């Protein structure tokens, strides 16, 4: 069976306009071309699609059944061609982006919307991981792009562009022991259990650790739940509290005497110069770089 897109388009048009001659006019073809195409389609399918007893062909029951699927099939064939052209132009078969766990609440989806509008056929895969694991995904090329907190030391292969500034704050449940004090000393922090968002790899030391006793989780949502249950205090995104008034009512932002309990970080879009990027990743990077230049 050798059915092509043009045959399906002619069949669809004949079904919609009701005659071979009208279909020919609409498609800019001679009637004999339309008639021959339908005849060849009937031979390929081994089905009679039109009865030719009167002046105009009459669609058979089989033709009506096939017509219901024809438009969707033509759409899929066009999408297949567009995908093939995009891939030949350098579009990734899929774009993998890892987002640091604490940033999963933020507006990173705005950047995905930009990609979706520009590359509607692109498959985008989003992963969430603690900072250390996100870096590892980038290094082993499991992720093409990463949305991370700024780092004091950069790998020589890393490249980045700043996205925004994010504020993290120390919090506890309002009935937790530290919440009973107007200000908290370093010694009190040291002796109170801390809930830390960290890599599953226990050999990797997490950042922003102040307590002697820590519990680890790889999700800030899990950390928040544990903090609310009074298992310990922790550091969460301020924006997470701002977006959820009910959560803000249940938590208290701690005020440390000896050092700040408010941590400001830039958030970067990071990629590796050793990882060959496709046109979608390159487009997003250039788009963000252009936005940064306009802001400056």
From TrEMBL:
Pfam families, per this entry? HTH_1, LysR_substrate
Keyword Transcription part of the UniProt annotation: yes
What CDD domains is this protein classified in? PBP2_LTTR_substrate
In terms of PROSITE patterns, this protein maps to: HTH_LYSR
Tell me the superkingdom of the source: Bacteria
Annotated HTH lysR-type domain ranges read 1-60
Q: Which InterPro entries match?
A: LysR_HTH_N, LysR_subst-bd, WH-like_DNA-bd_sf, WH_DNA-bd_sf
- Example GO molecular function: transcription cis-regulatory region binding
What are the alphabetically sorted keywords of the record?
A: DNA-binding, Transcription, Transcription regulation
- Give the family, as the similarity comment puts it: Belongs to the LysR transcriptional regulatory family.
Its recorded name reads HTH lysR-type domain-containing protein
């Amino acid at each position: 069976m050798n059915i092509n897109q043009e045959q399906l388009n002619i069949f669809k048009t004949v079904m919609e306009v009701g005659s071979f001659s009208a279909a020919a006019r609409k498609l800019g073809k001679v009637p004999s071309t339309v008639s021959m195409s339908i005849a060849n389609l009937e031979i390929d399918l081994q089905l009679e699609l039109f009865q030719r007893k009167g002046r105009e062909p009459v669609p058979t029951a089989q033709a009506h059944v096939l017509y219901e699927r024809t438009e969707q099939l033509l759409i899929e064939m066009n999408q297949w061609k567009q995908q093939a052209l995009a891939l030949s132009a350098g579009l990734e078969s899929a774009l993998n982006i890892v987002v640091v766990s604490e940033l999963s609440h933020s507006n990173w989806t705005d950047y995905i919307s930009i990609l979706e509008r520009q590359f509607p056929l692109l498959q985008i895969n989003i992963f969430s991981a603690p900072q250390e694991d996100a870096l590892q995904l980038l290094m082993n090329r499991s992720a093409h792009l990463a949305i991370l907190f700024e780092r004091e030391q950069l790998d020589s292969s890393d490249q980045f562009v700043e996205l925004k500034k994010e504020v993290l704050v120390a919090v506890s449940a309002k009935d937790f022991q530290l919440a009973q004090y107007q200000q908290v000393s370093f010694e009190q922090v040291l002796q109170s259990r801390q809930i830390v968002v960290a890599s599953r790899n226990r050999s990797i030391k997490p950042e922003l650790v102040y307590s002697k006793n820590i519990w680890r989780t790889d999700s800030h949502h899990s950390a928040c739940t544990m903090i609310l249950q009074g298992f310990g205090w922790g550091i969460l995104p301020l924006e997470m509290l701002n977006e959820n008034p009910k959560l803000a009512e249940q938590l208290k932002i701690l005020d440390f005497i000896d050092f700040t309990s408010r941590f400001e970080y830039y958030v970067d879009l990071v990629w590796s110069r050793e990882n060959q990027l496709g046109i979608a990743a390159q487009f997003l990077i250039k788009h963000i770089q252009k936005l940064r230049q306009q802001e400056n």
